[in-house]
Amino acid sequence: MSGQRIPAPVAATDPSQDAALPDYVLALKDRLAYLPEDQTERVVRAFRVGAHAHAGQARKSGEPYITHPVAVAGILAELGLDAETIIAAILHDTLEDTQLSRIELAAEFGETVAELVDGVTKLDKMKFGSRQEADAESFRKMLLAMARDIRVILIKLADRLHNMRTLGAKDTSSRRRISRETLEIYAPIAQRLGMNKFKAELQDLGFRGLHPDRYRVISERIRAALGNRREAMGKIEAALTQRLASEHIEARVVGRIKSPWSIYSKMRSEHKTFAQLMDVYGFRVVVDTAMRCYMALGAVHTLYKPVDRRFKDFIAIPKANGYQSLHTVLLGPFGAPIEVQIRTAEMDSVAERGVAAHWAYKTDSGPANSAQARAREWLSALADSQANTASSSEFIENVKIDLFPDEVYLFTPRGDILSLPRNATALDFAYAVHTDVGHHAVAARVDKKLVPLRTRLESGQLVEIITAPSAVPNPAWLESVVTGKARTAIRQFLKHLQHEDAVDFGHRMLDRALDALGSSLDGIAPAVLDRFLAEAKLHRLEELLADIALGNRMPDVVAAQLVAARGKKAARTVATTAPSSEKIRITGAERGVLSFANCCHPLPGDEIVGYLSAGKGIVVHREECPNVAELRKQPERRVSIEWDRDVQGDYRAELRIEVINRPGVLATVASAIADADSNIENVEYVERDAAAATLLFTMEVKSRRHLAEVIRRVRRTGVVSAAHRYPL
User: Fold this and answer.
1) Angle, to 10 degrees, between the axis of helix 345-353 and the axis of helix 196-210?
2) Ranges for the HD domain (predicted)?
3) How far apart are CA 688 and CA 694, in angstroms?
4) Residue range 218-225: average pLDDT?
5) How far apart are the first and last CA of the chain?
6) For a pLDDT cut of 90, what percent of the chain falls above it?
7) Residues 159, 170: contact at Cβ < 8 Å?
8) 3-state DSSP: the chain helix, strand, coil percent, rounded to 5?
9) Which of 302, 308, 438, 643 could pair covalently with 431 via S-S, beta carbons 3.0-4.6 A apart?
């Protein structure tokens, strides 16, 4: 990029200031009537600079390229945004596609405009391993710029909206790729920011680009259906207006029409036919105050009967994106439901424009509306998430999770309201309260009933998290959570835990190997150790120890190299080193370093042996495991281990059971296993003949002794002819 060049005198290369402006720029000036004249002139100046920078460039449609950024600025002008945003919109592609540098941009229009343009600029000129990685990193950069200044995403959404409006010039594969990205990322972001007007148009344009035939068929059927029901809608609208007027409530009543995308997505998700979805009349009632919203609700409920359990109060409990409205469903005069939304003009503006409603952008002052306040909270959480996420792809995955279209609204014991994505669990709630609460959570009380952390929550529930100082996250938690915040926090903790376990285990393995050579880690001079680490390109001893535990370096080889580096010959070479008779004891809590072989399912109480596997750490086998014979051919990978007296956790075991084949036998055996305090993970039922069958249970037990107790209980059922551990 040309960002390091000395600023050029931009004005000197511009066309004459007196040059006639094109009609599309004059139209933009008309839309900017809300700005002071000097600000409008700055916008015109930005057009001249942008037109000169993009000179000779054309869109796929053949139009001059500058028409696109001016159209983007026009979309933002309709929202009433400030001059800096409009200027940045006109210049948003200059850093990426022209010779104009960031220094020149800042010198001419100020640092804020340069920041906004830089935030929108993609990273295509950097080298990445793949297109997906480039897209992920580009999107991550944009979101972080958006966290600093929300105007970045407003420009990006307007840019995407105009590109979608003019998508016809692209080839089929590009149309499908851009449309899918719009539906998966940009439309949900618009919804998350409360910009429902943008969201609806992006969804319909994305639908048209991805599935043109389906879009055409549904659009035609909507037009036909509306033609048939126009009279009915007019009667309902007149009745609603008359009833509100009789109650002295000034209101504007407008009929609502479902969009092609909303019809299509509901047909798929709710398994409904087109006729079922269109057999609903929708109206919006706009009044002047929140109090009159509730008065209007009472009035419409006296006109038509409300449908039970179909009322939602988003005024008292706003959605996560700041949306406020009363929703009710009434039984109409034609036997079809009537959906009514009741809101104030202010709420209507926020519902349509979200963060861009009543724009008053001042970073020092409070946000101008509730949508802006909630958007800043969300963006702040995104910034925290990316700081703890190394991979761009993982960060984007977390963002996508947080863009759920539906939320559940939950109460804390203090009466605060938290909004979480649909299907969120009590564990997600714990992390939403505070990361430390999540890390130490053990259970939850939902509406005063004790429930497991994996319990899914529903709107309106009162949730209290029970914590214990000794509790810590475990890998299984990642399967229970849906929010990006919870997932990032758990992964971060587990990585830290794995590193600590690996350092401790690697220390013990290296000490044992050095002991076999008549030395110890304490006996290696710091200077020798530092030199060894430098040659190995490691920064700290902890990295070396973790590498050993994770199987990336052999402890015997490292020990021999350290002793040799000390200037003394090892008493024995690595190949002939007699291993220390002392075994390393494991408690089972070292799950970041240890894994237990699926071929033999070792349990506490078994004679065990460990084998180093690169990147995985130590894989634990039973001594009698058939695979151990093959592993003995690589003695340098062997790690002598044994169970500690204090063993923790549950371990997987398999039980092969021969049973009499008759009804209820599976339930009888499963009940016996459960009575022995064992959790069943899986059952395979293989019928051998009419009289007998074989059951293969996968379960969790605490030790070899616990498994023996399970087998005893199973044998006592009277339906079992044989039961034994599998494999033997």
Assistant:
1) 40
2) 65-164
3) 7
4) 87
5) 66
6) 32
7) no
8) 50, 15, 35
9) 438
Q: Which residues partner with 620 through β-bridges? A: 596, 610
**509-526 pLDDT, tens digit each:** 888 888 888 888 888 888
Q: For residues 392 and 136, is the Cβ–Cβ distance under 8 A?
A: yes
In order of 242, 256, 299, the CA distances from 342 in angstroms are 16, 12, 11
Please tell me the distance from the alpha carbon of residue 98 to that of residue 2, in angstroms, as a whole number.
9
Active site residue: 14, 41, 63, 96, which one? 96
Angle at 20 between CA 17 and CA 25, to 5 degrees: 95
Q: DSSP labels for 109-133?
A: H-HHHHHHHHHH---TTS--SSHHH
195-203 average pLDDT score:
91
Distance CA 622, CA 599 (A): 9
**Whole-number Å distance between alpha carbons of 180 and 217:** 20
DSSP character at residue 580: P
- Which position has the token pair 């972001």? 189
Task: Spell 394-404 as b/e; 16+ CB within 10 A means b.
Answer: bbbebbebbbb
Measured distance CA(500)–CA(42) in Å, rounded: 57
Using 50, 70 and 90 to split pLDDT, how confident is the model at 685? Answer: confident
Q: Using 50, 70 and 90 to split pLDDT, how confident is the model at 16? A: very low
Per-residue HEC secondary structure of 363-387 comes to CCCCCCCHHHHHHHHHHHHHHHHHH
* Sign of the dihedral through C-alpha 706, 708, 712, 714: positive
- 18: confidence class by pLDDT, cuts 50, 70, 90: very low
Amino acid 572: pLDDT: 44
Q: How many CB atoms lie within 10 A of CB 135?
A: 19
In 391-440 the beta strands, taken as DSSP E runs, fall at 407-411, 417-421
pLDDT at position 283: 94
At 3 the pLDDT is: 36
Query: Which segments of 632-700 does DSSP mark as H helices, in order?
Result: 665-675
CA angle 331, 335, 339 (to 5 degrees): 40
**pLDDT of 303 strictly over 50:** yes
- C-alpha dihedral sign at 12, 17, 19, 21: positive
Contact 33, 24 (CB under 8 A): no
One DSSP character per residue, 290-322 reads HHHHHHHHHHHHHHSEEPTT--EETTTS--TT-
**For 440, phi and psi rounded to 5 degrees?**
-105, 15
Using a 10 angstrom Cβ sphere, with 0-12 exposed, 13-18 middle and 19 or more buried, the burial of residue 696 is: middle
| 10 pLDDT above the threshold of 60 | no
Look up 97 and say whether it is catalytic: yes
Distance CA 569, CA 575 (A): 14
Q: Does the annotation count 96 as an active-site position?
A: yes
Question: Looking at 14, 63, 97, 500, which residue is catalytic?
Answer: 97
d(CA 343, CA 327) in angstroms, rounded, equals 9
Which H/E stretch holds residue 54?
none
The single residue listed with the structure tokens 């809590």 is 589
Q: Are strands 407-411 and 337-344 parallel, antiparallel or unpaired?
A: unpaired
CB burial of residue 450 (10 Å; 0-12, 13-18, 19+) = exposed
Q: What is the mean pLDDT of the chain?
A: 83
- Pick the closest to residue 70 from 48, 99, 97 (CA basis): 48
pLDDT, position 60: 81
The residues, ordered by sequence, that sit 6+ positions from 250 with a Cβ below 8 Å of its Cβ are 244, 287, 288, 292
CA atoms within 13 A on the CB side of 305: 7
Residue whose pair of structure tokens reads 């086998």 in the numeric block: 621
Which amino acid makes up residue 42? R
User: Taking residues 631-641, what's their average pLDDT?
Assistant: 85
Q: What is the Cα–Cα distance from 337 to 368, expressed in whole angstroms?
A: 36
